[in-house]
Amino acid sequence: MFLEKIHNLRKSLIFRLTILYAVAFAVLSAIGFLIFYYRIYAVTMESLDLELLEETQKYTALMKEEGLEGARSAIAEEAESENPDEDFFRLFNFKGDILTSSDMSSWGTVDTQGISSKMQKEGLSYVTQTITIPERDDTARMITAIVGPNTVLQIGESLEEVNDYLDIFLKLFSILIFILIIVSTIIGWLLAKRATIDMAEVTQTAEEISNGSYDRRVQIKGRFKEIERLGATFNRMLDRIQSLLKSMKEINDNIAHDLRSPLARIRGIAEMNLLKEKSIDEYKDMAASTMEECDTLIDMINTMLDITEAEAGVNEVKAEEFELVALIREACELFRPIANEKKINLKTNLPESLTFKSDRKKMQRIVTNILENAIKFTPADGTVAVSAAAQDGEVRIEFEDTGMGISENDLHHIFERFYRCDRSRSQGGVGLGLSLVKAYIESMNGTIRVWSTINQGSLFALKFAL
Ligand code: ADP
Fold first, then answer.
1. Ligand 1 within 6 A of 188 CB?
2. How far is CA 381 from the centre of its chain?
3. End-to-end CA separation in angstroms for the chain
4. pLDDT (tens digit, 9 = 90+) per residue, 356-385?
5. What kind and span of H or E run contains 205?
6. Ligand 1: does its nearest atom lie under 6 Å from the Cβ of 414?
7. Using CB atoms within 10 A as the burial measure, which of 161, 308, 334, 445 is most buried?
8. 3-class SS at 163?
9. Measured from the CB, is residue 457 less than 6 Å from ligand 1?
10. Does the beta carbon of 375 lie inside 6 Å of ligand 1?
11. Domain 12-166 annotated CATH 3.30.450.20
């Protein structure tokens, strides 16, 4: 149980983010500290070297003025006044013979000849170095300088004090880094927690939805842009799921109401013929009626599927270039015989040419559906006018008729599936045409608007971006 909790904690995003933050902080602080520490060390050594060099220059001048004896007595004096554990002074020749020296009992063996011959070989006037004194477990800074002919001066200064300071500094910095790591871990944990609170909300909403609350949405409070985007995308996905569910429910309702009637009619025809003995011609009539009803049913089902597909955005909208004016003209020619029969004046007001890039087949069905309605719902001697124009980066297509019109109340419903206005019921049709038109237009990112006055006519205006 406990082990499982630890395992889960190790896999949690908060834990990982916190650790990452703390480790990154610790590494960066340590690097910063090391750079700082070595800078301090280098500066200290530089100033110490300068001091030692000035000291040797003093003896070089003395050698010139007072010779070896003068330097010897000055060293003896200097050695007297200094603590022999902290500093040493030594004068020797190039062979390594000691000419004079302070008390070096606590300094162990410090090289003389090796350094002086190296200096001679390389033509150096002085050399500084840090030496370790194993006897004292300490380090010292030492300068070896040529102060006169065949005379080398060596001065050593214990680094005990400097090392003590650096040790204190090191300890202080370690404590500071330790505190900073704890603080950064807490800050990292709080930040990770804050970021994941929003994620937890998305998860909770997803859980509620999986239990059936499809109307729940994630609160977008704008704490973090990324989470805000996740929430917005999640909500958009939910809107889509909800609209798909709504259309599925509508389809179920439609099947229950509207597909039932043709089926009931088919059954009625069959039943009537079963009850009474009929002639062969009557049976043929029955078969013809059944086929007609079946065709209507198939048409209805196909159109419903097309509407659902377009609304759900299942199929990609094809983008092909075509001549829109030619497409409209072809549709008008298709309906002209019916218009002529009804003595309807079918007029067009179209430009020479208008190229449009979209789904040609869908546009064909949109135009024929609206045109068919306009002719169907316009009485004899009426007019149906079709126009198209391109302006300000968009295409407008208008269908105007002088037909029976649509009431204010019906106008809100004509795009619903199976909706047919009461006044038009005698005209035939199933009420799916305009639903399909709207679903197609929206899938092509277009808009449709309708203006209508009872007994005066209607205007259907379509707009698409060019
Ligand atoms: P259908 O034409 O098969 O009845 P539609 O979905 O195409 O179905 O149209 C829905 C309803 O809108 C029609 O039944 C009709 O009442 C009304 N309608 C559509 N176009 C017109 C029009 N041009 N004039 C008058 N009413 C119309």
1. no
2. 62
3. 64
4. 999 999 999 999 999 999 999 999 999 999
5. helix 160-210
6. yes
7. 308
8. helix
9. no
10. no
11. yes
Decide which of 3.30.70.270, 3.30.70.580, 3.30.565.10, 3.40.50.720 is the CATH code for 318-465: 3.30.565.10
Q: How far is the CA of 68 from the centre of ligand 1 (A)?
A: 126
> Ligand 1 within 6 A of 420 CB?
yes
The pLDDT of residue 223 is 64
Could you tell me the distance, in angstroms and rounded to a whole number, from the CA of residue 424 to the centre of ligand 1? 7
Task: Report in angstroms the alpha-carbon separations of 122 from 116, 119, 127, 384.
Answer: 10, 5, 11, 110
Dihedral (CA of 6, 9, 11, 16) sign: negative
Distance 358 CA to ligand 1 centre (A): 25
Residue 360 is encoded by which pair of tokens?
């040609």
pLDDT tens for residues 149-170? Answer: 888 999 999 998 888 888 898 8
Sign for the CA dihedral angle at 275, 276, 280, 283 comes to: negative
Domains of the chain, residue spans: 12-166, 222-315, 318-465
Q: Is 222's pLDDT higher than 70? A: no
Which CATH class, in words, describes the domain spanning 222-315? mainly alpha
Structure tokens at 303: 């159109």
Q: Which residue has the higher pLDDT, 382 or 431?
A: 382
Record the pTM: 0.55
The response to whether residue 68 sits with its C-beta less than 6 Å from ligand 1 reads no
Tell me the best of 365, 383, 416, 434 to mutate to test the pocket of ligand 1, counting ligand atoms within 8 Å of each CB and taking the most.
434
**Could you tell me the CA-to-CA distances from 453 to 237, 347, 456 in Å, in that order?**
40, 20, 5
Q: What angle (nearest 5°) sits at the alpha carbon of residue 250, between those of residues 244 and 251?
A: 90
Classify 381 in phi/psi space as left (phi over 0), alpha (psi -120 to 50) or beta. Answer: left
Strands 345-349 and 383-391: parallel
